[in-house]
Protein: T9SS C-terminal target domain-containing protein
Organism: Confluentibacter flavum
Amino acid sequence: MKNITQVLLIFLFCIGNVFGQQEKGIIGANNWLYNWTEFKPNQNNYDEPTQILAGNIDKDTKLVKRDTYLLLGSVFVTNGATLTIEPGTVIIGDFDSKASLTISKGAKIIAEGLETDPIIFTSNRSVKRAGDWGGLIVLGDAPTNKFGNSSVASYHANLTPSAYANTNFGGSDPESNSGILKYVRIEFAGKRISNNDYFNGLLLACIGSNTVIENIMVSYSAGNSFEIHGGQVDLNKLVSYRSSGNDFKFNYGANSKLNNSLAVRSPYVSSSYAVRCLQISSYNKKEEVDFSKNGTLVVAENITLVTDSDNIKADIEKGLVKEAVYVGQNSSLSMSTSVISGFNPAVLFEDTIYINQENLEKIKFSNMYFNNCNGNIFVENNSNNEDLENWYGNSAFFNVYAKSNNTETFIDLKNDKRPDFRLRINKIIASKDHFASEDLGINE
C-alpha cells in the first residue's frame, strides 16, 4: 500500500509539472494561429481595387467583402461615424501616397473578421516590402500622462488646418469604446515619416477598456508592430512577425493587459536602432509628462517572445540579436507564465533604475521560461547582474532557465503554413545555471 501511495504521489507530481509547464507561453487546447494568420504574406495576390477610400469618412460606412479597396493618402473616420468592415474584406494601402487609416476620437471601427475569413490590410506593390504604406491608427479619449493635447499630426503631411482636430487624442474616460478589431491582418505597414520616425502597424492612442482588440497579426512592419499610448485597453492573441521595429511598445501612461500573444523576431530584419519585443516606457522625455498621473503599467501573461534563428550563438556574436524586454524608469511590468527564447540578454532595465526593493516590486517576473539567452536580467550599461539574478532566481518566483534549441522548445515553428509556437513539453531540459550565457559559451 505504501508503494502504491508513493507511485501515485510521483505520478501526480509529474502531471502537475507538465500542466504547469504547458501554462508558459502562448496556450490553447488547439493552435489558435491556424486559419487566420499568414507567415508568407508576400506570396499572396489579391484582386485589383474596385473602390477608393480617400479623404474623410464622416458618416456611417460599410466596407464589403465583394469589393477590394484602395486606401489613398491620409484617410480619417470623423464626426462620430462608425466604419464597419465585413469579414474577408481586403484593403490595400497605396505606396506613393503613404496611405493610412485613422479612426479619430469619437469615431469607431467595427472590423470583426472571422477565423476562417480575416480582414486584411496590405500593400499595393507587386513586390511587397516592410514600410510600403502607413498603417492603422485608432484614437480615443481615455487618459494619458502627457501634458496638454496629444496629436498624431506629425504622421500626416500637408494637413489642412481644419484636419488637425481629427488627429487629437486623450481625455478622461478610461472605459471609452473605439470599436472592435478582431481577426485582422496588417501587412507591410510602417512607412517612414522622417529620418528615424515611422508609422506603426497598429497605433492605439488613449483607447478605453470597452474597445475589443484580439486576434490581430502585424507582419513585416518597418515601424513598431503594436504601439499603445496611454489608455486602458486589454490586448489578446496578438501576433507580431518579423518587425523591423518593436513588437509591442507601451508608453505615456498606458494601463494594459497583454495576454496569450506572440512575437517572432528575425536577426536579419531588425532596425539598427534599439528595438525589442516588449518595451515599457512612461515617456520619451521627462518634460512631456505630468508625474502626478500614473505611469505605464503592463500586465503580460502567457507571452512567447522568440528569435527565429538556426544558430542563435552565431547571430548573437555578430551583434544581430538584442534584448527581448526593456523596462524604462517610472514604469511597471508584471510578466508571468511567459517564454523568452534566444535573446541578448532576456531583459534590460534602463540605467536610471536604481536596484532596490521598491523598484523590484514594480518589475515582476514569475513562472517564466528563460531559454537560450545570453544572460537573463541586467541593468543597462552594467555587466554585474548578481543582485538581479539572486532576486529573480529565487525559488519563490518559479522561474525556469534552460538551453534548448528552438526545434526542441516549440512544437513546430518551422511549419510555413501552420507553425505552432506552443511549448514542446517533453523536450524541455531545465538548467540549474541561471547564467544562460555560459551554456551558450558566450562571454559577456
